[in-house]
Design brief:
InterPro entries: DUF4937. By secondary structure, this protein is α+β, with helices and mostly antiparallel strands. Helix content is 29%, strand content 36%. The chain has six helices and nine strands; from the N terminus they run E-H-E-E-H-H-E-E-H-E-E-E-H-H-E.
């Protein structure tokens, strides 16, 4: 499964919201599974969107045929668009499906791992972080995915070229869905520091950024 992460800063909120409705046209696209997102808490007018596709081949076909037509209504309403593509590695909690309908917020972490620590980082994700998150009340489902250098998106949107972010094999996406801000807050305050020490995260990570995202139900496709 292919995961597409889009992040941008909105400069014309009414226009962006009108254009966002056009993405309902994704329904029926071969290989398309779901798309959803919302407003990030890291800065004013920051938006994150996540799309899920059966494979890169289906995604490339969509980009070549239909993307620009759907995007046209949203052109010029945002800036600093960044797009990264990731390949599914494994679930966080069992039975992941890209279902946004029962979630209140998302937590995304983008991790750049030291190459010599990549295998250890992946093992710790499976053995330390995943069980802790899966056992947290309010955590619904999640996905762990890995970028590949050849997986990066090319510019397709007219006038709003998708920024090509050169990613290496040691970049990872950790995306989790939660049913409430309160439950996510409990997990953060009670466990993260202790888990990071146990997983030796300081030795593994070259850099990490992320955001907490308040979902917009109307953006779910």
């Amino acid at each position: 499964m292919l995961v597409k992460w889009m992040r941008c800063t909105v400069v014309d909120r009414p226009g962006f919201l009108r254009g966002q409705r056009r993405w309902a046209g994704l329904l029926g696209e071969p290989g398309f599974r779901a798309q959803g997102g919302g407003w990030g808490r890291s800065g004013t007018d920051v938006v994150h969107l996540f799309g899920f596709w059966d494979s890169r081949a289906f995604y490339d076909s969509f980009m070549a045929r239909s993307h620009d037509r759907l995007h046209a209504a949203q052109a010029g309403t945002y800036k600093n668009l960044q797009v990264r593509l990731f390949e599914y590695r494994f679930d966080i909690k069992t039975g992941f499906t890209p279902d946004f309908t029962d979630a209140d917020l998302l937590r995304v972490a983008h991790c750049k791992v030291r190459p010599e620590r990549s295998e250890h980082y992946t093992q710790m994700q499976e053995k330390v972080w995943n069980p802790a998150m899966a056992g947290s009340p309010g955590m619904l489902r999640g996905i762990f995915a890995q970028a590949q250098p050849q997986m990066q998106s090319q510019a397709h949107a007219p006038g709003e070229g998708e920024a090509e972010e050169q990613a290496g094999e040691d970049e990872f996406l950790v995306l989790s869905m939660w049913n409430s801000t309160a439950e996510h807050g409990k997990y953060r305050s009670d466990r993260v520091e202790r888990l990071a020490l146990r997983a030796q995260a300081g030795a593994d990570l070259a850099d990490v950024d992320g955001d907490v995202i308040d979902l917009e139900p109307d953006w779910t496709v």
